[in-house]
Design goal:
mainly beta, six-stranded mixed sheet, about 5% helix, about 35% strand
Length: about 550
Amino acid sequence: MIRALTRDRRALTSAALIAATAVLAGAAGLVAGGSGNARAAGGAVVLDEGELDFTPRLADGKLELQIDDRSGDTAVVREPSQVVLHAPASSLQYTADPVATALGTTNMDSWQLNGWEAENIFAPEPGWNGSAAGGDTEISLSGYEGPGDFGLALYTREMDNANAPATAYLGSVASVQRTFTLPREEERLLPIWQFTTEGVYRLTFTVTSGGTSDTETLAVVVGDDVDPADVLPGDGSTPTASPTESPTGSATASPSPTAPAAHVIAEGHVDLAARPADGNLEFQIKEGTELNHKWYEPGEVVMHVRPAAKRKIPEGYEFLGTPGDAVWWLPLQQNAGIVWPGWNTTEYAKADLDGRVSFRLDSVQGPGNIAMFHNGAMGVPVVSLNSGDGLPDAHTLGAGTHSHFDWVFGAEGVYRTTFTVSATLADGTKVSDTETIAWVVGDDTDPSTVTPGEGDEPTATPTATPSESASATPTTTPSASASGSPSASAPATDPGSGSSGTGGSSSTGGSGGTSTTGGLASTGAQVGAIAGIAVAAVLVGGGAVFFVRRRRTAQ
């Protein structure tokens, strides 16, 4: 069986997707019951997670295109005209060059099902099953509506290792074929489904085999700009009453008139920074790039971790919880559409300080645990901050340093993190600042309604325990200089790399410029020169290239 399993040898070698365990055979028609999927407009079922197959199936001598839905506890046969397929915001991924070439699109990020991140995100995994048609089946894209381009292409690890081109099956671009043949022996073909723009698509497929055919229209909602529960299935022409239940989504409550107006940061680059101020130290938040940024007090800001950050816990990261469970993950390197928090001491020169700057997490108030870490030289997570095994925790940076780590939140809701940032000046004066940052994780709460700084939300009891494989960062001062050796790969959700020593991915230098060490995507004056360049790195001790054709644009 053909599987699009690979992740382009990017920041690590991840486990392959689990092969399909069974293929539903025999019975035709819509099976009663369901797998617990949400109901949408027109009584449609929203398919937004799990394994499913588009299956041309002979029933009473007639071919029918149906969907074998195995996303729930019970396998269900569904009609394409009665479902809405949802490619969530978390399916926004890097587009490998061969896939973009095959589908006539670009290598910019696109929304992909069965793409490189399939094993790590909560999204549908749609395949094609040709074994129930009684012979080979011709699949045609006979109709198409949508705000962007659509296509199906196969690109596996073996193809990547051989530098082979991707195989295009069909697509909306004029240069791409509109028909492919699904062999009768193919039980689960898993091409990448690519969509280039958010919005509502309607894909009309015609399947033909043995002189009989069927045409069905599938509604697909890409991204989170449109609530899939509000979208009519099929071609959208079926009138229906509004759903009786309100769709889930962002809260609509108005901000309290007495609450301070918060500045919400939901995407792009920010730094949690230590700054000199009249002989003291100030802990502030820097939003933007080195050449275009603004400074904010932590008590003015609400950080929003959007639903697109939702990921599955990979094997080897048990200190975060049970592998496969959901967390909200802000990776070490920048991902489009989500916030990218880093640390910054670049306004201090080495001569200004006696030692390093300490960033101590004193407390976490919120519904789950928070962890911050990077991958060490052997690919083992090195944990700097983890509220799940007790606080305070601290990490340190030298003067003139800019660094990024992986951040993970264990549950949706409102968090408040209290940090004490401290240092000793060159003349021996001890300086510090304690501030609280508010975070909103997910979309159950409207971040504009949340008061920045301190608050009175309930706090869940920490439940996570550290993994034996996780090496906690000591609270004592690490070595004075960051290692220039590239680390092993980051976790499956993270295309970046960390650096040993201070931890994370960092750059050092004074205010006059930034010289990089480790794998950080620079946010200094060199942004224009390096944006879009693919990074190559070598695993320490292993000598294996683990980062190819990977592009991320520094903000």
